[in-house]
Amino acid sequence: MDPIRILLVDDHPIVREGYRRLLGRQPGFSVVAEAGDGVDALSAFAEHRPDIVLMDLSMPGGGGFAAVEAILARDDQARIIVVSMHQGAVFAQKAMAAGARGFVSKASPPDELVRAIATVMGGRRALSTDMAQEFARAVVEASPVAGLTPRERDILLLLMRGMNGRAIARDLNLSSKTVQNNLSQIRAKLGASGDADLVLKAQRAGLVPAL
């Protein structure tokens, strides 16, 4: 199986070195090119045609948002994950609107980045846990899910990220029965007929981007 070919875009060489070391330890990952600004990022993308682009936002050469748009203008199927020090939900929203398929904050544990790459390669969108929670908090007050408790929101968010009840229980350190009871309560509150309908209603309410 061919390795996942990755382009690193960040204006700090030390940061790129950290990514390269992290990804080099992962089986099936290969860093094929690096760039320090948006202009070089577009050139590197055109030359190397990577499977994944890891993109910083605060850079010379127009910045990360401009680079995302330029790469997607060249190839609308490009898989771009923004990796940024900015943690506000507005940055994640803007990145996704620009066409990025993932957003990982630089405050995240390293395994969040590895998981995001695998998720995007699997055809889904990816948010690091901290950004997903921030995103949810930013929109939940104005949505039909405002009546959910914090635990119910966490469970619903994980469900929307593709986890089943058993995986949610492990992630939140809860019993499977507790998770199932909470899911029943969430379905009742949102008038959902099942988990698929629950995810659809939550997506329509704007809890997280559709995956």
TrEMBL record:
Where is the HTH luxR-type domain positioned along the sequence? 141-206
Keyword set, alphabetical order: DNA-binding, Phosphoprotein
InterPro entries hit by this protein: CheY-like_superfamily (IPR011006), NreC/VraR/RcsB-like_REC (IPR058245), Sig_transdc_resp-reg_C-effctor (IPR016032), Sig_transdc_resp-reg_receiver (IPR001789), Tscrpt_reg_LuxR_C (IPR000792), WalR-like (IPR039420), WH-like_DNA-bd_sf (IPR036388)
> What residues does the Response regulatory domain cover?
5-121
Look up keyword Ribosomal protein and say if it applies. Answer: no
Cross-referenced Gene3D superfamilies: 3.40.50.2300, Winged helix-like DNA-binding domain superfamily/Winged helix DNA-binding domain (1.10.10.10)
A GO MF label:
DNA binding
- What is any one GO biological process for this UniProt entry? phosphorelay signal transduction system
Residues modified as 4-aspartylphosphate are 56
Return the SUPFAM superfamilies for the record: C-terminal effector domain of the bipartite response regulators, CheY-like
Q: Which PANTHER family match?
A: TWO-COMPONENT RESPONSE REGULATOR (PTHR43214)
Q: What is this protein called?
A: LuxR family two component transcriptional regulator
Q: Which organism is it from?
A: Ancylobacter aquaticus
